[in-house]
UniProtKB/TrEMBL annotation:
It comes from Spinacia oleracea. The gene is LOC110804197. NCBIfam families: CECR5 (TIGR01456), HAD-SF-IIA (TIGR01460). InterPro entries: CDP-alcohol_PTase-I, HAD-like_sf, HAD-SF_hydro_IIA, HAD-SF_hydro_IIA_CECR5, HAD_sf. GO terms for cellular component: mitochondrion. GO terms for biological process: glycerophospholipid biosynthetic process. This is Uncharacterized protein YKR070W. It holds the Pfam family Hydrolase_like. Transmembrane segments: none annotated. PANTHER family: CDP-DIACYLGLYCEROL--GLYCEROL-3-PHOSPHATE 3-PHOSPHATIDYLTRANSFERASE-RELATED, HYDROLASE FAMILY PROTEIN _ HAD-SUPERFAMILY PROTEIN.
Amino acid sequence: ISQPLLHNSAQFKGLPFGIAFDIDGVILRGRAPIAGAAQAIQRLYHKDGTMKVPFLFLTNGGGLPESKRALELSELLGVNILPSQVVQGHSMFRNLLGRYQNELIVATGKGDPALVMSEYGFNKVFSIEEYTSYFKDIDPVSQYKNWTTMPKNDQSSTLMKKASACDVYRERVKAAFVVSDPVDWGRDIQVLCDILRTGSPSGQENGGQPALYFAADDLEYQAAFPAKRLGVGAFRIALESIFNRVHHTPLECIIYGKPEPLAFKNAEATLRQLHCHTDFDVQLNNNQSDYFRALYMVGDNPSVDIKGARQAGDPWIPVLTRTGLFQGKGNHKEYPADLVVDTVKDAVDYILEKEF
Ligand code: G3P
Ligand code: MG
């Protein structure tokens, strides 16, 4: 454990503390838990299964509704994770409901991005796969693909009966959402270039670019493969470079997720709710700003997790592990954490020792 630069919390004694865990490279490598991760999370519960420390998962990954992800994590970690403890890159897309609830929108990414958006309440959402299927020959190399990106149990289509072929041909797409890592980059870049130029693959240019939202912007992340893998941010660069060559107006997009300050504000508010609504021993200070004495962000990506927590300021404390993107001996040079540990288990041991 590197020498920590943690604050002296004496003046905040009595206020609660909380923890936000990154998932990829901290809790999981691919679908497998990292050694000690399950035990670390289990230490945050009392013997009777109630939560001892308010905590959540703050990941830039996604592709499944929070309820499903919570079930998956519960099985992998042997505890009962609540859907509200899963904050994904796309979780904040909910806030855009007022703007696009009944507008035609397209969603792409691994998992079931249309189901994610339908569950948030968007009524006219198509997966890019389904949208593409309405335009014959839109993907000129589709006959060479002997696979599909359509989710296996396509629940999203049942939820989307309100949207019809008629809507697809008549209406402009108002916004495109990159919900998680795109699977078929070639098709997605082609179809997004079509949509973002005109609002429809067959349409005339009649107005500005439809909005484009990214759930995150990670250039790379740590999955199961030993070396780093390209993430949503890499896809964004590819799309942007190509769009800007085929179109006269530069691509505009809006990016959510870490390290954006909004992601940390939202995590703080969620942790506060978890603390208020769960049966903790102490219930103090209901004031939003000084509610926590410390909020630890345990992450593996210096330019995303550590930079984000640092930018978010008090009461966030960035903690860096060596099980993911960062594997250096000391601290990261450009985005140093307050504490660097080998694993998430070391992080939790340290935090509990310090705070209790
Ligand atoms: O696609 C997932 C990745 O970009 C990062 O996930 O959990 O490390 O924020 P996480
Ligand atoms: Mg990570």
